[in-house]
C-alpha cells in the first residue's frame, strides 16, 4: 500500500553529497522502508523546488549476518537501482556515523553484490565488483567532436564516449537519444563523455538514467570510464583521476584480475545538513 505524503511529517533525514551527486538518507531502523519508497513519495522528496531536492534517496538498515549494512537506493524518478557509486561512498560515511559499522572496514550489500568499504583520511572508498560486459567499440554513429564509443557494466550499464572536449558536449540534447539506444539493451544505460585534461586527469560528464538528466557526478560512471580508457590504451591500469562537474575529483584504482578489472572508488561522502520533514 502506498504511504500518503502526510505520513512523512516528523521523519528525520540527512542530506548528503558525493562530489555534487546528492541524496536524502534515512535510517531504516527508525524509518520503515515502505514509508519513504513509493514513487510518489520519492519524487516529492527529491523535487528541488517543493521538496528537499536530490538525485535519489537511500535507506540504510542492518544486514547481519550477510553484511554489516543493506543499501536501498532509488533514483529521483522513483525507480530502484542496483547500484550507485556515489550513494555507496556516502553510505559508507553514514554507516560509520550511525554506528552501523566500523569506519576502518565494513561490508555493504546491494542488488549488485557485496561491497567492501572503509573511511580513511576523511574520505570513503569502496571496492566494487569486477566490471563486466566490456565492449571497446559499439555500433553507434558518432557526431562531430566524438571519437569512439564503448560500453561496460559497472554495477549498472554505461556508454562511454571519448570526445575532444567534454565541457562542449550538449549533454541534455544528446543524452536522451543515447541513454535509450537499442545497442545498450532494453533497460538503456547511463551515458558518459570524457576528454583529457592537462596534468593527466580526465574530465567526464554523465547523463544518468532514472534522473533523466545530467548529474554533477556519477561514481559508477567514473569507474566505467576509467575501464574504457584503459581498454583503449589511453591510461595504464592503475589510479585514474576523474574530474566531475562539481569540480571535485573521484579516484578510480583498477586492479587487474583474470576476468578483467576490479575497481576501487574513492571520493567525497559528506553530510550537508540534517533535518526533519514538516510538509512536502
TrEMBL record:
The residues that hold substrate are 21, 75, 85-86, 190, 208-209, 219-220
One Pfam family of this chain: DAP_epimerase
- Keywords from the named record: Amino-acid biosynthesis, Cytoplasm, Isomerase, Lysine biosynthesis
The entry lists its GO molecular-function terms as: diaminopimelate epimerase activity
- Keyword Isomerase set for record: yes
PANTHER family membership? DIAMINOPIMELATE EPIMERASE, DIAMINOPIMELATE EPIMERASE, CHLOROPLASTIC
Its family remark reads: Belongs to the diaminopimelate epimerase family.
Task of the protein: Catalyzes the stereoinversion of LL-2,6-diaminopimelate (L,L-DAP) to meso-diaminopimelate (meso-DAP), a precursor of L-lysine and an essential component of the bacterial peptidoglycan.
- Which protein, by its recorded name, is this? Diaminopimelate epimerase
Amino acid at each position: 500500500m502506498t504511504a500518503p505524503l502526510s505520513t512523512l511529517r516528523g521523519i528525520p533525514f540527512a542530506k548528503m553529497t558525493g562530489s555534487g551527486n546528492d541524496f536524502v538518507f534515512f535510517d531504516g531502523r527508525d524509518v520503515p522502508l515502505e514509508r519513504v519508497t513509493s514513487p510518489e513519495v520519492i519524487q516529492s522528496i527529491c523535487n528541488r523546488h517543493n521538496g528537499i531536492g536530490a538525485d535519489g534517496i537511500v535507506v540504510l538498515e542492518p544486514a547481519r549476518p550477510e553484511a554489516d549494512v543493506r543499501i536501498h537506493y532509488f533514483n529521483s524518478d522513483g525507480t530502484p537501482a542496483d547500484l550507485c557509486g556515489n550513494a555507496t561512498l556516502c553510505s559508507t560515511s553514514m554507516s560509520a556515523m550511525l554506528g552501523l559499522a566500523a569506519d576502518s572496514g565494513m561490508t555493504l550489500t546491494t542488488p549488485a553484490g557485496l561491497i567492501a568499504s572503509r573511511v580513511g583520511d576523511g574520505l570513503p572508498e569502496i571496492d566494487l565488483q569486477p566490471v563486466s560486459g566490456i565492449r571497446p567499440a559499439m555500433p553507434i554513429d558518432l557526431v562531430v567532436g566524438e571519437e569512439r564509443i564503448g560500453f561496460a557494466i559497472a554495477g549498472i550499464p554505461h556508454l562511454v564516449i571519448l570526445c575532444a572536449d567534454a565541457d562542449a558536449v550538449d549533454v541534455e540534447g544528446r543524452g536522451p537519444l543515447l541513454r535509450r539506444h537499442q545497442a545498450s539493451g532494453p533497460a538503456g544505460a547511463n551515458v558518459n563523455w570524457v576528454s583529457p585534461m592537462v596534468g593527466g586527469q580526465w574530465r567526464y560528464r554523465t547523463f544518468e538514467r532514472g534522473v533523466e538528466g545530467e548529474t554533477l557526478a556519477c561514481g559508477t560512471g567514473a569507474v566505467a570510464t576509467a575501464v574504457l580508457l584503459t581498454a583503449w590504451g589511453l591510461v595504464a591500469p592503475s589510479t585514474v583521476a576523474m574530474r566531475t562537474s562539481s569540480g571535485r575529483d573521484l579516484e578510480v584504482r583498477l586492479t587487474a584480475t583474470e576476468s578483467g578489472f576490479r575497481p576501487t572508488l574513492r571520493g567525497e561522502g559528506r553530510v550537508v545538513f540534517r533535518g526533519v520533514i514538516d510538509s512536502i
